[in-house]
Fold:
Amino acid sequence: VYVYARTGTTWAQQAYVKSATTVAGDLLGFAVALNFDGNTLAATAFDEDGSGRGINPPYDNRAMNAGALYVFTRQNGAWSQQAYIKGSKSETSDGFGFAAAISDDGNTIALGAGDEACLTPGIDPPGCADDAPPLRGANIWVGSAYVFVRNGTTWAEQTFIKAPNARPYNSFGVRLDLSGDGNTLAVSAYLEDNAGVGVRPPMVQQFLLQNILNGWREHRNEAEESGAVYFYTRSGTAWTAGAYVKSSNTDAGDEFGSSVALSGDGHLLVVGAHGEDSAARGVNGNQADNSVADSGAAYVFAY
Structure:
């Protein structure tokens, strides 16, 4: 990871940052996030192989592509590693570190594990071991999100989040963002298949099955890989689920949630759908015209 600082109008490299457990193939820098004053940096190593869990576990290189989060801090212009973090459910091929976001004060970090395989829905669900069905392997892209908090210089996991409609191939946690105060979290599942539109459409429990490479893959409803975004809010230390958001013109392949951004106060959400097909131009054009494949679109939501 490279850090650059500006003095006036002049930019210069301030630091070249590597983890304390550097190994070939870790992919440190897959996702990065910097807090408001620039003194706390979250950097993920999406394919890191440590089998440990929690904060600063021993490193052993025995869980291929489990993923890791590293926190670096700056004091008087000098950077150092503050923490090496693994999820409480961390396992081989979880993709822990697909996405990262940090609060303004640097004391809350949200992290996505888009390949994580537990099928139990909800916030801090019990158990939640890797329960991938037979023939699918561990990497079935169900996905999850974690929130970590700092007290002084000590980090701890605050919550582990699964989508309320957790399903294989949804990739929940591939993109996420936090509000400035860290109390509002938006998490996307850009391969989610529900055909609903708007905010809080019904999560229909029907699904289709397709045989791919001798393994069964689920497709929900009739909008395969249309995508969705989920809201969560924090009060004190407790997280609760909020809105479930689909685009206003849901279609298969739109991948709504391929990018997400929250405003500082958490009241404005922008969602990218890079597979959306409308030929519209400008703002609020004809969403029903699907004549320009994969032209892409952005949606703005407010509350």
Remarks:
- The mean pLDDT is 90.
- DSSP finds no helices and 21 strands in the chain.
- The chain has one domain: 24-302.
- The two ends are 36 Å apart (CA to CA).
